[in-house]
């Protein structure tokens, strides 16, 4: 028995040593490496399997290359510019800025779902869909029936969902979609037991593309809670976009990358002819910015840093979760010191307690530098929106946390347009009417237990 015990101890030691060396090699930040080292050494039996499940996927098969033939067809709609900011964002996106787009701001669930459902009804050839969460509730059922109806009309439908986000989705729901001829897959190349290695890398994108002509992206998933009908969470504040124009085809390209990674098949006979907006009033410039673990640039965090750094008068941002990395924290502090009006809007309510507790460790430091923090008190704020001065705004799926920066597949529409920025400015000012400005004293006067819980959650923030 002692002989067997000795062998097991040697195996554990070697496994632990190999795990520690791997953590040092693959961690993107010192904080993440330290957090893993502490966990592995302190709780090896628990931490070793968790580490290998959460930290070691292989994305080498993911194709991150835009088809040059498709870009060639869009040459007339690419806006060649020498502006430094645009060039930086284009490099982060690995996609060019396009002109002749039309963007409509969709505020909250009722307006968004009506717009999306009407668009699905207009589909003649195909629909591409991607969602993080799909609920099997009344709205989910309505959504399913609409897709089945479209499929019966001869519309081809290709659907990717996230298995973790939609973990409560019933097998009956899935079977009904597949029975109607809808190609419905959960995101990820590996099936069966190997898929466990990718559980920590969710596809957080929300995307609908109809006939390659119009698209919808933003913060809303499919479920009644996004209409504010969840009694626990209450009123739901979110923002989505309806886009028409050449940028839709880049959204289509991004979907195809995810589709190929998921199915190892290509979708043929798609529309690659853009539908430009002729009106000068709606000639909006857009850069579509995909982000995720397949990028070596850590481009989600860099996009936000760049947006903060170029702001001269104002930088406003909203996020349901606030656990920024140190680089974003430093950029926010410097902007406030430059005299930029920096406002951060976060929800008072939460749907993730650990993330909420971590947030307090960041807020007091920012307030000391002059950053204004607002808590949205009307309900749960879920929108992911940025406003830069009076000329640029973005709407997408990126949260201000480590998961969005380094783990999730995300997507953002970065829009350079005075009229659109004006609309976003008005929208956020309306949100501020339902906000309470946080004061330093409010954070300092919390109970000792609350402070200890916040600091404990803060230590785990690199892993969140």
TrEMBL record:
Primary location class: membrane
Subcellular localization, as worded in the UniProt entry: Cell membrane
Spans traversing the lipid bilayer: 6-26, 33-54
Superkingdom: Bacteria
SMART domains: PLDc
Enzyme class (EC, first level): transferase
GO molecular function: cardiolipin synthase activity
EC number: 2.7.8.-
Lipid biosynthesis listed as a keyword: yes
InterPro entries hit by this protein: Cardiolipin_synthase, PLD-like_dom, PLipase_D/transphosphatidylase
Keyword Cell membrane part of the UniProt annotation: yes
Limits of the PLD phosphodiesterase domain: 199-226, 377-404
One Pfam family recorded for the sequence: PLDc_2
GO BP terms: cardiolipin biosynthetic process
Keywords: Cell membrane, Lipid biosynthesis, Lipid metabolism, Membrane, Phospholipid biosynthesis, Phospholipid metabolism, Repeat, Transferase, Transmembrane, Transmembrane helix
UniProt signal peptide: none
A GO term from the CC aspect: plasma membrane
SUPFAM superfamilies (UniProt xref): Phospholipase D/nuclease
Name of protein: Cardiolipin synthase
Organism field: Candidatus Portiera aleyrodidarum
Lineage start: Bacteria, Pseudomonadati, Pseudomonadota, Gammaproteobacteria, Candidatus Johnevansiales
Gene behind the chain: cls
